[in-house]
Amino acid sequence: MKKNIAVIKGDGIGPEIIEEALKVLDKIAEKYGHSFDYTQLLMGGIAIDETGSPLPQETIDGCLSSDSVLLGAVGGPKWDKGKGSMRPEAGLLGIRGALKLFANIRPAKLLKPLSDACPLKRDITDKGLDLVIVRELIGGAYFGEKRTFIDEYGHKTAVDSMKYGDYEIERICRVAFDMARKRRNKVTSIDKANVLDSSRLWREIAHKVSAEYPDVDFSDMLVDNAAMQLVRDPSQFDVIVTENLFGDILSDEASMITGSLGMIPSASLGEGSPGLYEPIHGSAPDIAGQNKANPMAAVLSAAMMLRYSFDMREEADDIENAADKVLEEGFRTSDIMSEGMTLVSCSEMGDRIAAFI
Ligand code: NAD
Question: One of 192, 277, 318, 335 is an active-site residue; which one?
């Protein structure tokens, strides 16, 4: 199969980790007879430096005409003082909007060789931790009307509105229910329906969609309870579906309990547009350029790309198994290093994963 992949390395450790993901993809192409063509595009701080914009039109066009997008990370102290639209993160929000990526999918799975890195007690992790958070990505408070003004009493006041339409809730719920059918057939919808109108509509639509999936076990949970249950007994969850702001917070909590930020991939999917695959971590400026970063999240993001955008399930399994094998053999980058293990660099980790494929 021939596929065109838009590659955005970005800033900080972005170029280092994406290099390893491409190494692994090349190995897959060789083994399975595929051809992956990469188009390198600019976004984030490097794009500001070279073009004056965090998201040049050429990058949007290049992504739209690709089969899929692989992204490293953007941002760094050099660009922190820029105004809203001139910050690297504006590129991220912009590309999500341009590709209409409404569904963000973040798996959180505790791998056996890394169970020591999990901050939860052994009796909790022994029950297992393997869940997926399906987060709505282009609605809610991050995209609703926002303004800062002086109120009638002279107080400086700011408002962000959390707005959702029924169609937005319905389409994200369908993604979650379809995913549950490929996993353990369970969906938990998270909201704050005891307080928020937008959550009451969320709950109504989630129940409506659930009726079309009688084979999937469905329940709702309030977000405050969900934050607690994630650390009390994460084994109860299979697929979690929630709105943008709650999903942002809960998915970081879920990633923390799996051990390291450097391990977790994500996928953002739209309707009829190329998917975007990226690690959940940032550009880690503190270790950039030192060949120290953990490339696993980038490599596993490439595996998600093969699974969800190209329907190459065997190839995706191959990458995930190779990553597990490298960990089982005791190889660790510094972020997941523990006693008795062998410390490897970013590029060595990539070499070892590729060698297992
Ligand atoms: P970060 O995720 O970059 O780093 C947090 C900590 O985790 C650091 O100590 C870092 O060294 C470590 N870390 C992260 N990824 C790692 C990896 N692959 N291997 C080893 N260690 C890793 O978060 P931050 O420090 O809050 O943000 C740094 C910059 O990244 C900021 O400019 C921020 O805006 C940006 N950011 C970008 C994205 C993105 O591109 N999607 C996401 C989050 C933050």
Answer: 192
